[in-house]
Amino acid sequence: MEVLEAIRSRKSIRAFRPDPVPEHILIKLLGVATRAPSAVNLQPWEFFVVRGKALKEVKSAYLKDYRFGKLPDPDIPVGDTRDIAPVLKGVYKERQVTLAKQIFKIMGITKANKKKEWSEKMVQFYDAPAVIIVAVDNVLQSNWPILDVGLVTQNIALAAPEFGLSTCIMRAIVDYPKRLRKIVGIPESKRIMIGLAIGYPDWEHPITGIKTAREQIENIVTFVG
Fold this sequence. Notes:
Blueprint: H1 3-9, H2 23-33, E1 45-51, H3 52-67, H4 90-107, H5 112-122, E2 130-137, H6 144-159, E3 166-170, H7 177-184, E4 190-199
Antiparallel strand pairs: 1-2, 2-4, 3-4
């Protein structure tokens, strides 16, 4: 797949087939992704790939915490965490609401209990057979590694289709770092940054047909000089 086509066709997948992703495929994918640029070639990223029994334990623990109303407490602060996402305003709120309406319409969600069920699917990482957790060593305290992690994460998302895979980049995966550290074995010396649900997409599921809009480029570009 050409680069421009990979960028244009990338989408967040919220329905996966149960088929396991072979380890050698994930190794190849991550190897390609680490060609991402990083400040002074720090390459600050480290990956924890969670599958099988460990992933089931994480999902079970997250679902329990969510149902008991435990607030997300990720290593990277996101502001107000009274709900599963920070409180937004203005155009950012509008975009968030538009996405929610798209999802609810496609899924036929009209009642509060159905919306809750969908939120629970999110903390189950949309039933992906694997998740990738990206972490950074705590010795790197500046904000630059956050950008670097964003770059390598985007590379994973763009390269995944070459292996027949799809992804959903999710803060929900790292919402409860204490749970992750205990189950996955992530040391306290690592700052847990972001997660990706990854697997073979279920193209028969209606949610995979969703296509989000993008702002007109003329509205967000300023030429100077």
